[in-house]
Amino acid sequence: MTGVGVRVRAPGKINLSLCVGRRREDGYHPLSTVFQAVSLFEEVTATPSPELRLTVTGAQAERVPVDETNLAWRAAQLLGDTIGLEPLVHLHVHKGVPVAGGMAGGSADAAATLLACDALWGAGLSREELSELAAELGADVPFALLGHTAVGSGRGDVLSPAMSRGQYHWVLALRDEGLSTPLVFARFDALADPLVVASPTPDRDLLAALRTGDPDLVGRALGNDLEPAAIDLAPELVETARVAEEAGALGIVVSGSGPTVAVLGRSAQHALALQAALTAAGVADQVLGAHGPVPGARII
Ligand code: C5P
User: How far is the CA of 288 from the centre of ligand 1 (A)?
Assistant: First the structure.
């Protein structure tokens, strides 16, 4: 809390597996994905203000819009409309999740804003009600509220918690230039196998591996159907993955629509060695460490 403000922290995510089906009539793709929330966080502070206002600091803040195109702005408006209040709030976002990196930083901002404004305005909505509003804002927003590990179906917004044992130690290879999610899905359509299924199903091998807590098994089961499309748009990701593999990564996967490459280590120490190898090879603009799973959006 800062004075009368409410501060909320919400995590970024990695898609440990992402199975994508044929494009639907509404333009969205049916998904079956396994999300893991990881320890890169967005922080949103909501304070009363004469008008809706948004400011952003932190990593790559200059690339984030501060108007109604920002998902946090739309979250405050949607919650205000729902409870019949003018959204008179100053939202301050401090970014810790890469912008346009496939880790749902903007979705975390929206989830954090829903929770912060709910508390600031005394709306008292349940987690389920907030989750329904979250799904209206974007496919990845409900998971930023829920956190931990979950299977996402539908557009990725219909969640069921998944059992997962242990902590996973990641290295995230970031690229300054992000990838646009709609563009990556469009490239998926252009490249897709004509036999792509209409309704993808959860990756059973991965879910079984997560229950054992064995990082070797989890590493081998990582996978993402959007990877060929992301690599087609950002071919240098191949070199990033090659360096990670030679350095002994247990698994390597592009997160979501990319371009972040998530690299799994055996332990915290092994992840540090992988981070050093990727940094030394100069195959990413920035290399960060993170662990997961972590909880979803929380007031701090
Ligand atoms: O829901 P969100 O606004 O995050 O999605 C951004 C865009 O990504 C959508 O407009 C759509 O083009 C694409 N998308 C998709 N299928 C999904 C999720 C996103 O085609 N399941």
Answer: 26
